[in-house]
Design brief:
There is one protein chain. This protein is an alpha/beta fold. It has 16 helices and 13 strands. α3 crosses α5 and α4 runs antiparallel to α5.
Length: 400
């Protein structure tokens, strides 16, 4: 039984200008995907969730940060925290079940409301594992074993041969699979795919991610051109709710179709499976640890695979790795290489081994708690206090 003293959420932001200076941010960071051409990525963002129990033990969670961390922070602080602070809960699932029903009843089965719940869920699981003296993987019934990963994204440069050289560099680092962001036009995409497939070893898996960049006609044209390239999967060729196009593409494609990073609840993933999606690709900072357990069971029932989306800070990455290590149908993790000091400079080692795997952090919980002042990931004073201080006196008194 967990006795919750307090819950608080904080915005985490890291502007790329802190590294490159104003006006010098590389174009592939500002526009890393087909749907980010006008909306520029000027930095990395996330929402940090801190749950503190009556003894001052803290669990850390993360909410997905795009396009802004503000909405999920407000929902945690203004809706979830007032209702859960001072409560005794048997499990994360029990603690948040009523909130899920409440938000879905208001039409919020996607977006910041679900992300807020995911962040709290991750923090509760982290806290529960620490109280049990176990790693998150052990608490989930497994162990912190190495997790197979693939490298993402292969930079989509102006010249296909340059993209191929960047892909080969990942192979030389030990990766057994790579993912190329496409969606720049069928002819352009095929030129880059051909160059990369020719450059890398035949046994290296090549995945494609269109980031919802195509309408049905162009998506059909694309898949009709992929047969010669031995593609491991094509991810999100069209918008997430273009269900009829997804069904057509699944039936016609020469490779498996993947999707799900923009889905949040079990019924949405069930629908993807019904459409023919072979690889479910959830984000732990959108579905939480509880959601990952449900998706592993769903995949077991339907004979599909779960390959986790890999963006986020150290918390999201560490949590995802523990889930992959422990849950049987979570078969693969995306090692994202976009610049993010909030992921890389806070003590979560992410070097790939000779088998193309990365191990989850050791120790209790998920092991991904940020370290204030580590490297370039500088946190403001409010977050530093939240990471360091025990439960406040008022919250502790409310439980006595």
């Amino acid at each position: 039984m967990l006795r919750i003293a307090s819950i608080a959420a904080f915005e985490m932001r890291f502007p790329f200008s802190r590294i490159y200076g104003e006006g010098n941010i590389p174009a592939d960071l500002l526009s890393p995907a087909s749907h980010f051409q006008r909306i520029k990525r000027t930095g990395q963002t996330a929402t940090l969730v801190v749950v503190t129990d009556k003894d001052g033990v803290k669990g850390f969670g993360e909410c997905f940060g795009l396009p802004s961390p503000g909405p999920s922070r407000q929902l945690v602080n203004e809706v979830i925290a007032p209702a859960l602070s001072g409560a005794q809960v048997a499990s994360p699932e029990e603690a948040l079940a009523e909130f899920h029903h409440y938000f879905k009843a208001l039409g919020n089965s996607r977006g910041p409301a679900m992300e807020a719940l995911a962040g709290v869920d991750i923090a509760l699981w982290d806290l529960l594992a620490k109280r049990a003296g176990k790693s998150l993987a052990q608490l989930l019934g497994g162990d912190a074993r190495p997790v197979p990963v693939y490298a993402s994204p292969v930079p989509f440069t102006a010249n296909p041969d340059d993209s191929a050289r960047r892909a080969l560099a990942f192979v030389e680092q030990g990766y057994k699979g790579l993912k190329l962001k496409i969606g720049r036009g069928v002819e352009t995409d095929i030129a880059h795919i051909r160059a990369i497939r020719s450059a890398i070893p035949a046994e290296t898996a090549l995945m494609l991610d269109a980031n919802c960049g195509y309408e049905r006609g162009a998506a059909l044209q694309l898949i009709d051109s992929l047969g010669e390239f031995n593609i491991a999967w094509l991810e999100e060729p069209v918008e997430p709710e273009d269900f009829e196009s997804l069904r057509m593409l699944c039936e016609r494609a020469p490779c498996p179709i993947g999707g799900g990073e923009n889905d949040f609840i079990e019924s949405a993933f069930e629908r993807l499976v019904d459409l023919g999606i072979a690889y479910l690709q959830p984000n732990v900072t959108r579905v939480g640890v509880t959601g990952m357990r449900r998706l592993s069971a769903l995949a077991e029932r339907h004979g599909v695979e779960v390959a986790l989306h890999g963006v986020g800070t150290s918390i999201g990455v560490a949590t995802a790795l523990h889930c992959c290590a422990a849950l049987p149908k979570l078969s693969l993790f995306e090692r994202n290489h976009l610049v993010n000091p909030m992921r890389d400079d806070v003590g979560v080692p992410l070097s790939v081994d000779e088998q193309g795997c990365i191990s989850p952090p050791r120790g209790q919980g998920h092991g991904g708690a940020p370290r204030p002042g580590a490297g370039r990931a500088i946190f403001d004073q409010e977050i530093q206090r939240a990471l360091a201080e025990p439960a406040d006196a008022e919250a502790d008194e409310a439980l006595s």
